[in-house]
Design a protein that fits this description.
The chain contains eight helices and seven strands. Magnesium ion binds next to loops.
Length: 226
């Protein structure tokens, strides 16, 4: 099994299930032209996010880590009339590129980008009564994943779906001796998710054009404290 094969099969899946799409294609071109790193979710993963958001009936979606807005566009397309996405991005340049991409996709009215480190903007969401969210997609800096889980639970209700990208990291996540801060963040996140009685969760390993990684998927099963 090789990266070459995973990429070819991802192409096969994409050709079958993700037809060429002007807004998504333009978002990727503009992100590349602006030198953003090409670390967005793959097309099949983007479609999975959209399907999960539809399954969850999500009207109020939170994303951590916007980059150029590729995953944001997928999530926003799942919204019913009146729904919205709030997406948190630390890098003002990424946010500017995302804003243009989301505008071009015709989704500007549905998406609010909040610029700044997520640990600064998350508390504002709670204070501003933007909660609870129906679906939360965690995809920002891996070092802070444990704190992002804590915040996600605060901003959730029973039935909220929490999804986190990059929780397997080429398998490095099983190395208890890892000194990599991102791997440590993912390990702590996974352990916290597994032991928290407020969620029922699992991890799906993923291979494809983005290599070998994993999506954590958690359903909030308890009501927040009154
Ligand atoms: N969800 C995007 C990819 C996100 S890449 C997609 O699939 O299309 C991770 C993003 O998180 C980057 O844009 C990075 O700038 C941002 N980021 C890094 N640290 C952050 C922080 N502390 N708060 C918010 N965003 C952060
Ligand atoms: C990186 C971040 C991601 O969210 C991802 O899916 C892949 C790579 C990174 O920071 O390198
Ligand atoms: Mg990611």
């Amino acid at each position: 099994m090789s990266q070459e094969l995973w990429t070819a099969v991802d192409r096969y899946i994409t050709d079958l299930f993700v037809p060429p799409d002007a807004a998504l294609d333009a978002a990727l071109s503009a992100s590349g032209a602006a030198d953003l790193p090409a670390i967005q979710v793959s097309p099949p993963q983007g479609k999975l996010l959209m399907l999960l958001a539809r399954l969850a009936g999500a009207r109020n979606i939170l994303e951590l880590g916007t980059l150029g807005g590729y995953s944001t566009i997928w999530l926003a397309r799942a919204l019913p009339v009146g729904g919205r996405v709030v997406t948190l991005e630390a890098d003002p340049k990424h946010a500017r590129v995302a804003e243009a991409n989301i505008q071009r996709a015709g989704l500007a009215k549905l998406v609010e980008i909040r610029v700044g480190p997520a640990l600064d903007t998350l508390p504002q969401l709670a204070a501003q009564n933007r909660v609870p969210f129906d679906l939360i997609f965690i995809d920002a800096d891996k070092e802070n994943y444990p704190q992002y889980l804590m915040w996600s639970l605060k901003l959730s209700r029973r039935g909220t779906l929490i999804i986190a990208d990059n929780v397997i990291r080429d398998g490095d996540v099983i190395d208890a001796a890892s000194t990599d801060a991102r791997t440590i963040g993912a390990r702590q996140f996974n352990e916290a998710l597994a032991s928290d009685p407020r969620v029922s969760a699992t991890i799906m390993q993923t291979v494809g054009s983005k290599g070998y990684d994993g999506f954590a998927i958690a359903l909030v099963v308890s009501d927040p404290p009154a």
